[in-house]
## 1
Amino acid sequence: MPSASSSTAGHVAGDVPAAKTAMLVGPAVAEDVRILEDFLDAHGLQENYLNGSGNDVGAGSPRLRHGRVTAYNTVFSSNGSEEAMAYVTVPPGHAGLELARHPGKTQLAAMQQLLDAPTRDELVSLYSRFVHPHFPIVDMHAVRSNDDSITSTLLCYIYMLALPLWHKSPTLAGRQPPDFGRVVNLATAALQSDFLVPTTSTITAAVLDLLGRPVRTVTTNILTTGKMVALAHSMGLHRDSSRWSASQEEKSIRKRLWWSVVIHDCWGSYAHGTPPIISSDRYDVVVLDPVDWAPVHDDLRASLMAVQNTQFCYLTRHLSDLLELVHGLKTRWEEVPRRLRKIECALDDWEADLRRLCSIDLRKGPPSGHSSMQFCFLSVRLLVQRLYLRAATAQTAYPIDTEKQYRIMSLRESAITIVDYVNMLTPEHFSEFWFAHSSHFLVSTIIMLLRCMIESHDPDQLSRCTSKLIQFRETLQDARANYGWDIADMCLERCSDAIERVTRSSAYGPPFNNHQSLTTGATDMPPPPLPDFDILDADWLAHSASGLDTLLPTQSLDLVWDRQ
């Protein structure tokens, strides 16, 4: 496998000069290459059979193997078997296409005109303190020492992610920050040029891009995720490198980078409603130990952060199991409840492990990002209940079935748990690190709760939900206005009108239930009073549902209104 300096998290194995890109060939081809090269070596044949001089797929930079030139670099698999993996170097783009030898250099120069040297140093410090501990995939020592191994694109993203933290610096707080929109556009342009000449630094930059703001660039995030995952696969990050002949630091970096990719793929799938690209049976990189995140635990907070990062990887695996049910086109819904019960038990164990492993000192509080991870955990719980409801709906002959009503109640309580959690957050919590996808989960939580209200027949529950939603909206407005909590932006924009209409309509009685059946057994029940349709009308419901299609997995999860 092409090697690089093991001291640089931005450039791990897989980086090659700009003229060539390393690519992992398929398992069958790798086996053929190994057998053929072993034969040539055993018979002392010096012909360069795989010299890459023709127009074959192996065209690229030749390598030495037992004194013989070969275009392939073979690495044996981590499980100790004879299975091998082979890398080949290939041109990164079409012949004649002009590619930048230093992608992002122009954008970085423009960004440096907006930021003087002391400001850039302070932004690096902010990134190191508030962002890096959660995704430690950049060599901060190399960044601080202006090492040439840190690419221009990576520096662009470090500045971009640190800019929203401007007010946290005593040095910068009294000054006017540069235009954030321009900085975001420069970083995005740098990444697009980097994708044309990709290295592992490109993957690192893509991970940072998906951590950034604004969170509403849904299409761009989906495209970036797809390219990031494809590039990670092509560079073999999905394979366990624990037995490879590479430094321990390089192998640790590969694991960190791969799990960062998995995290964005899974949580992005949940947020955007697109199927995940990564399948759990197509990678063998184990979940990182805390030591892989922070090799030296001289500080208790750093140790807790490493444990927290490891737990987030486990939570991501549980989410991945749920996403198989969400997006499976051949899902047997009668079997889903049993699988969901197993996942619920695993989530219970995960929660218990988090409490046990972190052992939070109440005087110091949990590490930064704990609130975001707890919110993500509750969002996974909500997805479990939504799938229970989907399974009940798929199996029930009549929509008014007791099982379905029970699942609607469970879904409502799960959504209320999230609303209560957000309502209890303090200014300190809002100032923590928050996973960007949390913004989408706020929206889906409110949509689910409003749906449960519309299908409810209980005036007491309507009143309870109404008061909580009003408080929730006030909490988001206060957090955004006073503490700069941009995670609230999308929910306020998309759901404020829905909250207003549904809570106002509840004053006229339970909303109309368009699932009520006129079959035997339901005719003896008095119909619920109709709401004022000037306030809540069918056209508005249809408009609200269609308006959220780009933000919520409404098709795969049937999130808004079931029509059976």
## 2
Amino acid sequence: MSVIYLLISISIFVAVAFFIAFVIAVKSGQYDDDYTPSVRVLFDDELKKVKSEKLKKLSDYKKTSDS
């Protein structure tokens, strides 16, 4: 039974330590990003390149399905 008390106290200590680290990080401005949202609109979306093999298979499929 004493092991349970030990584990609970250690887990509470670790949780409090992580919470304090999080609060310090937020107060120091680590998560503030004012620049990126304002310029994100200006960037174009990247187009995904279709491999030539997939394009060829697609065109062959269309030819056979049209016939």
## 3
Amino acid sequence: MYIRKYKVQHKLAIGERFRSLCEIENCIDIKDIKNNEHSLIYSNGFGLNKDELNHIEKHTNFISSNQKSGFISKEYTKDNNHPTHKHRDENILVKHLFQKGNEEYTADLCLDGRNEFLLDHVNGVHIPGLVFIEATRQIAMSIFHIYVQPDEDDVYFVLNEISSSYLGFAFPIDTKAQAHLALICEKTNQYLITISFSQNDKTIVHSKAAFTIHEKKRFSLFEKKSAQKAIKKQIGTYKNQHQEKEVINAER
């Protein structure tokens, strides 16, 4: 997060995606920003996109900071395969992931205004609940790939179950995640992750997910065979329906 220090009161910079917040005190539409007029608080996790961040840089005096964007770096994995299994930066919801102890991890939610879950499901004030479902999946995968088995590339991540409980509104401000990941069944190689998301030290979402890890080559073959079977059955269904229509038309 960056803070520009001026004599005027602090204001939260708001982009297009959460524009309804501009009706609230201490929020300002970035389109209304003028040089030295406000002490702006903003971050690449606050629902702003890159163009909006650039607009802030252009129209305000910048106080230098060494903090980078904070996305989980692609340096963590081989062949640029991002640990979240996302390839567009705006869809990556995890930043500043750290291991704090045995099976304990922390992370920040990073919300780009162009994120796929914001494009057609937002009222302009709160963060949609689906964002936290996807963030849970991304945190689970990132922890596994970065900390649990960082040298193992030939694996297939299979999500078995995921759920969340919502305890309050979530807004485009600092969102912290406290995660616990544990191997719960060694025989099936199944893991369970539980996460608490909080804003201003108040828990707003509890989530959990169970997933299993499989040998990639073998599971990919199983997946393709399953797809082939499903498609063959679908074609058979349409074929039978077509034949039934031909019989009905012939009887007329």
